[in-house]
TrEMBL record:
SUPFAM superfamilies assigned: ARM repeat
Pfam family, any one: TPR_IPO5
Domain IPO4/5-like TPR repeats: 149-274
Chain positions covered by the region annotation Disordered: 897-917
GO biological process: protein import into nucleus
Localization annotation: Cytoplasm; Nucleus
Annotated GO CC locations: cytoplasm
This protein's record includes keyword Transmembrane helix: no
Domain of life: Eukaryota
UniProtKB keywords: Cytoplasm, Nucleus, Protein transport, Repeat, Transport
Protein name, as recorded: IPO4/5-like TPR repeats domain-containing protein
Length: 917
């Protein structure tokens, strides 16, 4: 096979793609795709020759690009390229070319792996060859030529040749199964990896750590992993000890993933691991202005925060994984030393991450903006550490004692960051420690910080109290409720706006979920200070609130009817008044409109007036309006009908939104992902669209026949969405809307003169079942079908029933094939894969159940007198139904076994269960 005739075309493509002009790049992509469809074998072979053997005399950039293109094109289904011309399903070039051509390409790649000297090209060759071998393995075709080359390269005197062998094993650990004389034994693999871990080249050692991770996770059996895993982990950490500081993160990251999946392998090396990693968590000193406080016995690192985080983050994550997945062994290390020291180290990180100056924080007006510099990492880590320790009393005591020691000392420091960190540390462990936080000394230690001279410390006090309240600690509200409330009320008058806002949020949290009749009156006297909390307080006070209703609702009416200026803050306040108003109505219950005649009408009139003034899509009042309309509809019932004309059209407009252009990030050569139906480029718009369908469903269900004027448009949009190729979230809510709309049609009689509308609705549902790919979407569609059939309760025409049975049978056969493939792979699954497929299996079981329920519904309506008269189940339909139900039963019994693994934390879960009981 000659490829010379393509050199000119490929050279032009490579030149254009390496350029910066967009239009030539786009034309080059299209031309390359056209060439690949017309001559797939020649194109793939030439790309491999250019990249691996420098055929054509191209520069390094063009050679490297050709390897990228080979990796991208070979396994991407291309329109116009078919393995079977009758079915015309797009196929990947790899699947179309002859086996002899595949072999030639592998020979070319192997030659490049042996002889190439340029480090950049070698990396590209390694990635391309690994991808080729991995995809070939997925197709049950062993890529045998790569195995001897990989083993041969480990003995090369050239370091970068040795690097490539471990690069291949790291990217494609399945190579160990593809050797011509059978899979490599565990002893051979261990010797191979240990040689790499002890190599004289630091690059080879790092790549060997990555290969060790990949092989232990993806290639070895449970028995082999148990046999050699601990040896390899110990060798990896010994290698890690001898790496330069800036390269430690590269070696740590693979081990983090390994620890989260197979923590048992790390147990014998725990002393080495903990001793190596704990000092890495000590914060840096450059530019941090650290206080003179010893958070741990380890010295601070003389480096920048960014450089330190590079290795501190993976080190922390690895230690947390071991603490979570093997808590007993972690606690036993030197009587809890690791747990105790990690508390101080994480508090030290909290302090080191903050800048001393917080003027910008105080002046920030948009409180919804997330502070990108806030130290989220240490707080989340401390929370995870406390949860991991909460399964044994001994571990909890270690954490508590260490925390109390640091909190008491940090609260005495002049540096406000220390006092802040102490408070946030208490809030982080609140969920795990429960009422013990309140019952012991910590609460009394932190109380004085409510009057701290620094605003961020007062803010942190409220955050800490809010976290304790959020975690449902009854002791705070029961034993210290009045004192806590007075402190929060005092902070409502704080001179710093952000502290006042946080005090209002804490007040809301205080009254959520629980009734406090003995102290709620103390709030109502000052309630006008925090409009955002009014509704929550009203719902907590219930009957006690009635004397205050009139004044507060009038206040809401006054704010809602006010003429606003251009300020966004005024619209935010008016939105809060809308929310507060409808929550006041909810607080009074079903007697609201009787006890306060005229309030409901006035409220909806004000809502309409505000809605007519909104011109900006991001107006903060819009969100409150939608909720308020629904609550008014719920309260007024059918009396709300005159206002539907103002509510439904905006919802229909939002529900009819359609993306008009492709995402700018997509190109024809970008790898496609069939599971990625929701393009994030339109995330907000599609979220609004889904919300609009939810609101339509509410009004259709609530107003029934009064919704009829919008039935046709709503149903048209709904059925259109079911078969649209994007946005599963929209499909789901649209499917749930169909039965509600059919109920509107039936009760209003809107379709009595044209019953074909009912048939069309079911026809589109069945079409959506055929087109759906995701099992959860299919399940929802069958539920929608069953509910819709129950609403209409009319026999189906036989041809429509046959469509449903054909679609259902095809879906069940697909599930059967998927389960058979999964069962075949079960012996090779690790714990993570097995748990994932068990969850997938549960979704499939639910789908099978819903298919059977839909078919049962067909039998019920078809067996009625009307159904028998029209022959709804005639012509072999009954036999087809029986066959489908038998198939469903057979596929439902085809399951993976639920079982434990020696190297996961099942033993640990059992231990936790014993302690909990």
């Amino acid at each position: 096979m000659s490829t010379e005739h393509l050199l000119g075309d490929i050279g032009a493509v490579l030149s254009a793609l390496n350029g910066i002009a967009n239009e030539p790049r786009r034309e080059a992509e299209l031309h390359l795709q056209k060439l690949t469809v017309e001559q797939p074998a020649e194109v793939l072979l030439l790309l491999s020759q250019v990249g691996a053997l420098a055929v054509g005399g191209f520069q390094l950039d063009e050679r490297f690009l050709s390897l990228i293109l080979l990796k991208s094109l070979a396994f991407k289904p291309l329109p116009g390229l078919y393995l079977n011309s009758q079915h015309q399903l797009p196929s990947a070039p790899f699947d179309v070319i002859r086996e002899t051509t595949r072999g030639r390409i592998e020979t070319v790649l192997c030659a490049g792996l042996k002889d190439e000297l340029d480090p950049r090209i070698r990396k590209g060759l390694g990635m391309c060859s690994a991808s080729w071998a991995e995809e070939s393995h997925k197709r049950k075709r062993p890529a045998r030529p790569f195995v001897p080359v990989c083993l041969e390269l480990t003995q090369s005197p050239i370091a970068f040749h040795r690097f490539t062998s471990f690069q291949l094993l790291g990217y494609t650990p399945t190579l160990v199964d593809d050797a011509a004389d059978g899979p490599l034994s565990s002893s051979q693999l261990t010797a191979l990896l240990l040689t790499g871990l002890e190599d004289s080249s630091v690059d080879v050692r790092l790549e060997a750590i990555k290969a060790t991770k990949s092989l232990l996770i993806r290639a070895l059996t449970h028995e082999a992993r148990d046999e050699v895993g601990e040896i390899l982990i110990q060798a990896s950490f010994q290698t890690l000890q001898n790496l330069p500081q800036d390269l430690v993160p590269i070696g740590l990251i693979p081990l983090v993933e390994l620890a989260s999946i197979h923590p048992k392998l790390f147990i014998s090396s725990l002393p080495l691991i903990i001793t190596k990693l704990l000092p890495l968590l000590s914060p840096p000193s450059q530019g941090r202005n650290l206080p003179p406080y010893a958070f741990s016995p380890y010295p601070a690192h003389d480096m920048t925060l960014e450089a330190w985080e590079a290795f501190a983050n993976p080190a922390t994550e690895l230690l947390l994984s071991l603490a979570e997945l093997r808590p007993n062994e972690f606690e036993e290390f030197e009587n809890g030393r690791a747990l105790s020291e990690m508390v101080g180290l994480l508090l030290g990180r909290e302090v080191a991450t903050f800048e001393m100056d917080c003027q910008e924080w105080m002046e920030e007006e948009d409180l919804d903006d997330e502070d990108v510099n806030y130290p989220v990492f240490p707080e989340e880590a401390l929370d995870r550490l406390s949860v991991a320790a909460s399964y044994t009393d001994e571990s909890m005591e270690i954490i508590y004692s260490s925390l109390l020691k640091h909190v008491q000392a940090l609260l005495q420091q002049e540096d406000w960051r220390c006092r802040f960190a102490a408070l946030m540390g208490v809030g982080c462990v609140a969920e795990a420690f429960g009422d013990a936080i309140v019952d012991r000394d910590i609460l009394s230690a932190i109380s004085p910080t409510a009057k701290d001279p620094h605003p961020r410390v007062r803010y942190a006090f409220l955050q800490c109290i809010g976290q304790i309240l959020t975690d449902g600690l009854d002791a705070l509200q029961t034993d210290y409720g009045r004192d806590t409330l007075h402190i929060i009320l005092h902070l409502l008058d704080d001179p710093v706006m952000r502290v006042r806002v946080h005090a209002a949020a804490s007040l809301t949290t205080f009254f959520e979920g629980e009734e406090h009749p003995e102290i709620v009156g103390e709030v109502l006297d000052r309630i006008d200070q925090a409009l955002a909390t009014l509704g929550t307080v009203a719902m907590a006070a219930k009957d006690m609130f009635r004397p205050y209703y009139r004044n507060l609702m009038d206040l809401c009416f006054q704010i809602m009817s006010a003429q606003l200026g251009p300020s966004k803050e005024e619209r935010v306040v008016q939105g809060g008044a809308i929310e507060c108003g409808y929550m006041l109505a909810i607080a009074l219950g079903g007697t609201w409109s009787q006890e306060n005649p005229g309030d409901a009408l006035k409220f909806v009139q004000l809502l309409l007036s505000i809605q007519n003034t909104i011109v900006d899509e991001d107006d903060p009042r819009s969100r409150h309006l939608m909720d308020a309309w629904e609550h008014m509809c719920d309260s007024l019932g059918q009396q709300f009908a005159p206002f539907l004309q103002y509510v439904i059209p905006p919802l229909l407009k939002t529900a009819s939104y359609r993306p008009q252009k492709a995402s700018p990030m997509k190109t024809s050569l970008a790898p496609s992902d069939a599971d990625d139906e929701d393009d994030p480029y339109w995330g907000d718009e599609l979220s609004d669209k889904a919300e609009a369908f939810k609101h339509l469903g509410f009004y259709a269900s609530k107003m029934r026949e009064n919704f009829a004027p919008w039935l046709a448009q709503s149903m048209g949009l709904c059925l259109e969405e079911l078969n649209h190729p994007y946005a599963e979230s929209v499909k789901n809510v649209a499917a749930y809307l169909v039965p509600a709309l059919l109920a509107v049609a039936k009760e209003s009689g809107a379709w009595n003169t044209d019953p074909e509308n009912y048939v069309q609705a079911f026809r589109q549902l069945i079409k959506a079942m055929v087109n759906a790919l995701d099992i959860s979407v299919i399940s929802i569609l069958f539920k929608s079908f069953k509910d819709a059939l129950r609403v209409v309760h009319t026999p189906f025409p036989p041809d429509l029933t046959r469509r449903l049975l054909k679609a259902s049978t095809a879906i069940v056969y697909n599930l059967a094939q998927a389960r058979a493939d999964r069962k075949e792979q079960e012996p090779y699954m690790d714990e993570t894969d097995h748990e994932y497929w068990i969850e997938e299996q549960l979704e499939e079981d639910q789908c099978l159940k819903r298919i059977e329920e839909a078919v049962d519904g067909i039998v019920i309506v078809g067996g009625s007198e009307e159904g028998q008269a029209m022959g709804a189940l005639s012509g072999g339909i009954e036999n087809d139904i029986l066959g489908l139900k038998a198939l469903i039963k057979k596929v439902g019994a085809q399951k993976l076994e639920t079982k434990g693994y020696d190297d996961d934390d099942d033993d640990n879960e059992t231990l936790r269960g014993d302690q909990g009981s």
